[in-house]
Known about the structure:
Elements: H1 6-21, H2 28-31, H3 34-58, H4 62-80, E1 99-100, E2 103-104, H5 105-130, H6 142-162, H7 178-197, H8 215-234, H9 243-263, H10 272-297, H11 304-333, H12 346-352
Antiparallel strand pairs: 1-2
Helix pairs in contact: 1-3, 1-5, 3-4, 3-5, 3-6, 4-5, 4-6, 4-7, 5-8, 5-9, 5-10, 8-9, 8-10, 10-11
Amino acid sequence: MKRRWLPALVLFFLAPAVGELLCGNMPPLQFFKPPALLCAAALYGGGAILIREVTLRWGKGWPTLLALGAAYAAVEEGLMVKSYFNPQGPAAFLKDYGWWGNVNWPWVTDMTLYHAVHSIAVSILLAELLFPQRRGESWVKGWVLAVLGLLLAADVFLGFLFFGQEGQPDSSPFHPPLVPYVATAAAVVLLIILARFLPAGIRARGPDTPPAARPFWFWLAGAAGCFAVMLNMFAMPHLTPPVVPVLVGAALACLVGWWLWRMSRGGAAWTDRHRLAVIAGDFSIFILFLPIIERDHREAKFGISAVSLAALVFLLILWWRVRRRTAAEHAHANGGVGMPPDSESASIRRHYHRRPFPLVTPQRR
C-alpha cells in the first residue's frame, strides 16, 4: 500500500534540518526540543511543501520554484524575524554597513539566495531523490495544504510578536518601520504573481541532446556557489562598499544558474547523480565549516560537529542508493546490460521529462 503522506512528512522535517540545523544556526540540543522543532517544521517544511505543490499544480518549473523561494525568504526574514530592519538582530554583525531606508540590503540579498536555493530548492530536490517514483505526483490533498498554510501563517504571526529581543530578553520585541515592512509584504505578493507567469524553463530531452557534464562539475558548481555566498556575506563587508555585495549576490545567482543550465543542456540531460552532486556540493561547505564553528564557539554551538558527520554519512548512503537504483533500472530496461557512468534509465528519463522541473501532472484517481 502506497503511503501518500510519507514524502510530504519527510520534507516537512527535512527542510528545517537543511535550513537551520545544517548551517549551525540551531545546534542539536536546541533544534530537537519539540516546541522548536515543530515551529521550525511549520515554517520551513510547510513553506517547502506549499511551494512544491503550487509549482506542480501550475505546471511550472525551476524559475517559478525559485521565485516562490525568494517570496518565502521575504516572509521569514522580513515579515517574521524582521531581520531586514533590525540592527540588533541576526544582521547585527553588519553594524553600520549597508543600511539604507531602514533596510540592510546586503543582508536582504544574501538571505534571499540562502532561503530560495538552500532552504527551499535543495530541500525539495533532496526529498524527490529520496522518493524518485513519487517526484511527479502531488504529495498532499487540498485540505492538508490549507492546514499547512494556516500553520505557516500562525508561525509568522507569533514570530512577528516575539522575535527581535536578541540579547535583551527583558526588552519588548522589535517593531519594524512601517514603510519598508509594508513594502516587503508587497514584494511577497509581487513575487508570487511573477512566479505564476514565469515560463516553465526546461525543455524535454530530444534524441540529439548531448549528455550532461560529469557529476563532479555539478558538485563544484554547488560548492562554489555556497562558498561564494558565504564570502559575500562575511568577507565583502570588510573589503568593499555596500553596493558591491548586493551586485555580487545578484551576479552569483545568475552565474551559477547559467552554469548549471549549460552543463545540464538546458535542464534536459541531468540525472539523479547530477542532482545529488549539486546537493553534495552545497552541503560540503557546511560539513567542512561546522567543526570549526563548534571549536570557536564551544558551548553555544555544542553538537554541530555531529551534525556535520551525520550529513556526510547521509550523503554517502544516498549516493550509494542512487547509483544502485539507476544501475538496476538501466539493467532491467536493457536486458541485463550495465549502466554507463553518467546515464539514466530510459523509464526514469521519460517519467522525469514529461514536464519541466522534477514535476509531472498528478495522476487522476
